[in-house]
Amino acid sequence: MDNLAQLLKESWTLVEDRRDRIAGYFYARMFLSDPALRTLFPVQMDGQRDRLLEAIVTAVHTIDDPENLDDYLRSLGRDHRKYHVQPAHYDTMGSALLTALRETGGERWTVEYDQAWRDAYQVIAERMQAGAADDTNPPFWHAEVIGHERRGSDIAVLTCRPLQHHLPYRAGQYVSVEVPRYQPRLWRTYSIANAPREDGTLELHVRAAGAGWVSSALVRRVKVGDLLRVAAPMGAMTLDRSSTRDVLCVAGGVGLAPIKALTEELAGYNRTRWVHVFVGAAGRDDLYGLTELCRLAAEHPWLSIIPACSDDPGFPGERGEICDVFARYGPWTAHDCYVSGSATLVRSALRTLAADDVPPENIRYDAFGDL
């Protein structure tokens, strides 16, 4: 496995700067080999291409961590049930991926690299199919929007209720969402912003980022009574209930969603662990979710909420980038740490926690880059 991991990472360096080209080759080859597959994908393919490459990069970088790789691939296989992927499709996808890598790598692509990717894809396909086969849940749930609250110009808080039966998940996980009325076959991931409830309802926090097709529809077009499709939950940013360590949570933007869910779960059972939640935004108008968190803090003395603004000179609380702010309150070496927000925020927070000598196994994070 060590040699395989080395070959995969080495070969990936040859092509990683040409990801768009890989994606273009991959989809062109796949649809040429099996034109019927095109109907499984959205009309607009840009976002879909990004997700292919994210999956490739994740697999490459976890190939030498068999336990996490297995969990990731099984979850990926369960998630792909929403696309109606069948076992026979994996051979077509594998052939298309190898062709795309080979064409992009050019003369520097060796026989050894080719075989390494062939072996890796066999593992990927087997684990994904095993995850899909073991899942007894439906490929996705139909969920009715029963609440839609705008919070500022580009953020909405949606409350949805699955129609069939409860969707099983843990606080901190995320789901893929499709808006069939406005953007059919186009899925985007959003963290669930509440701990599991008796009524099975889900809360989603969505920012309409740029020209994001799904997020714009969820914020600006979806109304109460509309139906969404929600796929099986994924993600491992969940609480370790056996831990006795205090907890640090860092959230930026709509990355607040999973942090709010984790805090709600802690409120249901925690009595001994101090919990510090840092919430960052550019200005006070973007601190859209403080009311619920402050209500929890008023009820639970072990919970502290520390908001911070990076570009609001008149803000009465902490000012500065959120990672600089929470660093001032450290050290966090003996804490369980949870980070959620933009990729930039997550990278900065991980550097801060590493400088604080927080063990990597005590850090869980979720990067929000979805549109």
UniProtKB/TrEMBL annotation:
Give the signal sequence positions. none
Q: Which Pfam families match?
A: FAD_binding_6, Globin, NAD_binding_1
Q: In the UniProt record, does the keyword NADP occur?
A: yes
Q: Does the keyword Heme apply?
A: yes
Catalysed reactions listed for this entry: 2 nitric oxide + NADPH + 2 O2 = 2 nitrate + NADP(+) + H(+); 2 nitric oxide + NADH + 2 O2 = 2 nitrate + NAD(+) + H(+)
Q: Which UniProt keywords apply?
A: 2Fe-2S, Heme, Iron, Iron-sulfur, Metal-binding, NAD, NADP, Oxygen transport, Transport
PROSITE patterns linked: FAD_FR, GLOBIN
InterPro entries with a match to the protein in the record: Cbr1-like_FAD-bd_dom, FAD-bd_FR_type, FNR_nucleotide-bd, Globin, Globin-like_sf, Globin/Proto, OxRdtase_FAD/NAD-bd, Riboflavin_synthase-like_b-brl
Indicate the segments forming the Globin domain, all copies. Answer: 1-133
Q: What EC number(s) are associated with this protein in UniProt?
A: 1.14.12.17
Query: Where does the FAD-binding FR-type domain start and stop, copy by copy?
Result: 138-240
List, separated by semicolons, the cofactors it needs: heme b
Cross-referenced PANTHER family? FLAVOHEMOPROTEIN
Q: Which family does it belong to?
A: In the C-terminal section; belongs to the flavoprotein pyridine nucleotide cytochrome reductase family.
Name recorded for this polypeptide: nitric oxide dioxygenase
Origin species: Plantactinospora endophytica
